Amino acid sequence: MLKRKKAILVLEDGTYFEGLSFGAEGETSGEVVFTTSMTGYQEVVTDPSFKGQIVTMTYPLIGNVGVNREDVESDGPKAEGFIVKEISEIYSNWRAEDSFENYLKKHGVVGICEIDTRELVKKLRSAGTMRGVISTVDLDVDSLISKARSIPPMEGLNLVDEVSCKEPYEWEYGTWRLGEGYPKREDFKYSVVVLDFGIRYNILRNLVDVGIKPIVVPAKTPPEDILKMNPDGIFLSCGPGDPAAVTYAIETIKYLIATYRKPIFGICLGHQLTALAMGASTYKLKFGHRGANQPVKNKRTGKVEITAQNHGFAVDESTLPDDLEVTHYSLNDGTVEGLKHKSKPLFTVQYHPESSPGPHDSRYLFREFERLISDYKGR
Ligand SMILES: NC(=O)CC[C@H](N)C(=O)O
After folding, report:
1. What's the 270 CA to ligand 1 centre distance in angstroms?
2. Considering 18, 191, 217, 233, which has the largest number of Cβ atoms within 10 A of its Cβ?
3. What is the CATH number assigned to the segment(s) 6-150?
4. Cα separations (Å) of 196 from 101, 104, 171, 227?
């Protein structure tokens, strides 16, 4: 057993958990959320949608397959902190290059282990997500409670600017294959502009798999410039924070929906921003949907998809305009999981069909986007 420093996790309601430090030492704060993914911790910690959040995994043993260079969803960790029950001090996997613990240390991510994550998650589930602080340097509970209460609440927070790319770039790699890694594609049929609100790499890889070359642009790119690029489609990405706070993106999407005649596809934050641009409202869920095992029903086919999700806000169905119809809904709580425009080639989902980690049930959505693009090509 490694010799570990004491660490404390304190929630804004005064609840605290004494545990041990893992990853970097120091102090961090954010909204404390939980994910029910059983593994995929490296994809989780690098998901830009976790910006501003401290993540706890409900699965009790984390780190046992180590980390590698490939399983990242962005250029490095984005979560503010990490909470686990037991951090495995040994790792074993043929792809592993280092331990999860060293990876977090190297990137300065503060973690806490050896706390009762079941108790923590039950608390968050009944009281709702809360702001919290993890510290290895200040072990005074009252001081940490006041720190937790002083961080900005997630509602009203625009975090897109912190994760969106600064310069446009193109992406050419498909999804991972045994023996090949991420294959580079040369023959693209179409190109789409991806508005980067906090893109996950596996979305780009899935677009490449169906023959679409993604051209990723910063979130603040004016819509006129996007139209000048004359793309075959537009993709609206996922991302962190409160969708209603990203007002410039809502305006951009409003403009695009009014003027662009080709297909638009949005995922997660992109879905919420589209609904807001069409005049609907979003609201904060009590504890969100996070995990790789979230059941969603496709209304058109009647099929149930097991999906990967990571969101704390949702579209309010009662505020939807006539032009939008619900295509998918959550079987856990009945909330909106997919939308489609009744007359334009525009569709969005709240969940993550790129599912990294997660089951591949919803990958058909990338093929549908490609078919739609092919229908509209040259029109
Ligand atoms: N993954 C996402 O795009 C998350 C969207 C938004 N930040 C939410 O929490 O609901």
Report:
1. 9
2. 233
3. 3.50.30.20
4. 29, 25, 13, 16
